[in-house]
What does this fold into?
Amino acid sequence: MTELPQFSAVEIAERLKKHRPTEEQIAVIEAPLEPALVVAGAGSGKTETMAARALWLVANGYVRPAEILGLTFTRKAAGELAERMRTRIAELRAAGLVAEPDPDAAEDLGAELLDAPRVATYNSFASTLFRDHAALVGFDGDAVVLGEAASWLLAREVVVGRDDPRLAEAGKGVDAVATAVLRLASSLGEHLADADAVERMAEDYARLGEIPPEGRYDYAADMASIITPLAPLPALLDAAREFQARKHERGYLQYSDQVRIALRIAERAPGVAEELRARSKVVILDEYQDTSVGQTRLLSALFRGHSVMAVGDPHQAIYGWRGASAANLGEFSDWFDARRSFSLSTSWRNGVKVLDAANTVLEPLAARSPVAVETLTPREGADAVPISVRFEESVVAEAEAVAAWFAERLRPGAVPAGEEPPSAALLLRARATLEHFTGAFARAGVPYHVLGVGGLLAQPLAADLVAALRVIDDPSAGNELIRLLVGSRWRIGTADIAALRDLARWLEKRDLHQQELDDVVRDRLRGSVIEEESASIVDALDFLALQKREHGAIRGFSEEGLRRLREAGALFAGLRSRTRLELADLVTVTLQELDLDIEAAANEARPGSARVLEAFFDALAQFEQLGRGGSLRAFLGWLREAESRDRLSPRSDPPEPGCVQILTIHGAKGLEWDLVAVPRLVEGELPSRARDTGAWVGFGQLPYEFRGDTHALPVFAWRSATSRAELRASFAEFKKQVGAGQLDEDRRLAYVAITRARHELLLSGSFWSSQTKWRGPSRFLSELEQAGVIDALPTEPAELDVNPLLGEPATVSWPRDPLGHRRARVEAAGELVRGALEEESVESATAAAGPWARDVELLLAERRQQLAGPPAVAPPARIPASRFHEYVSDPERVTAELRRPMPERPYRATRLGTLFHAWVEHRADPDGLEEELDARFSELDIDADTELVAVDADRFAELKATFESSPWAELKPVEVEREIHLPFDGRTIVCKIDAVYERDGRLEIVDWKTGKAPKDAEDLERKQLQLALYRLAYARWAGVDPELVDAAFYFVAEDRIIRPEHVSSEDELRERWRAALG
It folds into this structure.
């Protein structure tokens, strides 16, 4: 970059009427075209600064917009960066600051749309590189990429199929072993480690057991705790190898595989890197602290010495569990041959007091940071609202205080009329105390929304359903059975539960013929299972349901308790007999048999219950789309895995003004709210107690010496130990270092949580929760107190020795009344219903004499309704564009369906169409599928005994081949799988556009069809309505004249392109709609 710039960053901001950039921002924006690192604190405007740099480069003619490549961590961040750059460049063009190389290009809409920065996630960038050049290193570029949950299901399938006694000796369940295999396989790929070398290391490690004892102490227990955790590693490595082989056989890949193969491409095919450098003259690496070692090596191989600007914050490196390495920031200069670094330290998000808190919490990390980080300073005019602190006696009181704080700020009238209510969030370190806070919010009338699958499974209705499914599937699901038995359905008392436990112990000592086992057999059986699984109350309940009351083992039960237990046993036995049903059907039957659907509809105390069930069945649909392992046990394992991953993954849910969103701190990264509360700032919770300090000396962990960032990790010097005492001391020092690293991680979490607050921040905690000893305020709170950021904290609870939540026993009726405070209202409603039935017509009264009374009443009511004519049913607020033609051509049938909707079984053709659309989307834009949990392509792998064939593999292959020879095969779409919500005559039309292309200076919308082409002109006329809506929606969304947008159907199965001669205008669409529905 030798020519002097024509425009400065300040001049461009003034021309576009934007805020004047700070001196730090100017330095970044006007930096030379060479490698550089930007350390940007939370809320420091890095996205806006990167967009401003793109403007400066384009305005001064250094690059074209399309020569800018931006990479970031999540799809949400990629979307924000792309939108910001596209919007700013459009403003630059409007201001006449973009020098067009071709004078005609300024009027060419298609050229303008194509000449835009390319922004993607790190994973999707690697995916594109792999897909385009896989053949160079002997791979198939069309291989299917498995999401995390699909990978876990495949790992579980491998574990279930292995006959390896070493895995059984590990003493872990199938799901835990599957998780360990997947973690190990992924780590091997991410860190480019050799499994054979790891196995050799494990063999050497096992020889530590040969170190002889010395002196008085043999340290046997310590030696076992050091050596035993790695004993299963060779077996897990064998399973990981089989997992990799199974992926290869089926043409599957994980994202870590794509990065690994992409690196191989970059190293073995220099021309690929040269081509990328030529196309991407400027590269922006956002959220660089979240990149993995493999991603760093790949980017270095491609862009070392190139114009690369990496932006990151070591204090927000909280995704180490996903393979990210904060050490990458400190090593950027080595990997990319960089000599320049910059800082962004002005916070545009937080107020003065919030920044004081954030900087105080971070202070101990400053000296250990891999790069220098400037202290965050507030923007000019930032508010100075004091930080609110509540430290209560108990978690119950804390939850009430937090609820009151939100209630005061979200109450009607809290903001001036016409202004939007504030957004709000409760950020949790863990979900253990979630129910205390949701209960307090409900009592205080505070609207809240628990985000994610973990939030779903915490809801009582979903928890009951999952508990019932576990009881059906697993005889060791005693805790889940107790939950149901003492719940509102059966209300079993303590004496009967104790009698059921005694019966389970009696059965444990007997064989199937109820003959007592001898001591040797009994001891061996007891040793084959973990202690809590030895006596199964699930089995005891089955026994109780089948045996007569006179059986000698049935004693200690009350008559009413026995009746209810028998009823429960019969219900679960009946459900267990239906486990051969389709999974969705089994879940539905379980829901209905436990009357949970009625509970969802009738309990006004939980108005969101219907949404909970809807979300649960959405999760079930996601699981079924994975296409493999569709058993109940696999589904329950997948739920646990999805909950675990969901809890820690970043979320993209937009803020909901007036509603408190509840999520984990990990999930809050990249988000912000007006009001933020961070609860449980208690020593032992945030920061948490030291956990798993053995680190890689654990089940299914990759030893640190094989990680790419090994030099930045604690060292366990086991190879140099010559005595047991020396090994023990070395391990203790290693665990101490790991514990210190965990404290640093919690400190970063606290920093991330604090800096999510735009205006007001509440920090809270309590002395007592469920523990037997009280805990004081978090050291983070104490540091804020010492710095004068918050007022003095209480030092000890009023009650030092007894937990107030456990001390004074409350007198309660147990089991609880299922209706509680609602009983009077429900009973009164029941009386009204009975009274109305007694006053029914003679017709109904006569019918009531027989056993079919209810059925006759319903049939008569239906007859009366038919004679009166169908009631008017308004179309829903949201209508799919694909069904618009049904509303305007046959409104009576559609409204009848709305009155009485029926479930539809997915047709084979529908599944094939879904699969084809997913393939086209993945082919055009791999980022579009990156963060989905499903892997629909796995439906191609069909078991021989599958009753319903999911997809015809040969037919799918034909569709792909046909598309590859179509006019669109070689074109790059402008948009792919774009969903647009079109406001239309008081309703919203949901338009899911398959693809948009630029052809001959015009835009063309293409809708892929795997079914048959229209049979006649009338059929085509109906179908073109969908294209008309797509054209109107996209034209509005893109801000172009609909007359510049063409539309076509491509019937792939017939290789037939249909471009309707007439596509309805907006006025014609509205006229047909109103004519049909008024």
Summary: DSSP finds 43 helices and 22 strands in the chain. The first strand starts at residue 36 and ends at 40. Residues 528-533, 845-849, 900-909, 927-951 have pLDDT under 50 and may be disordered.
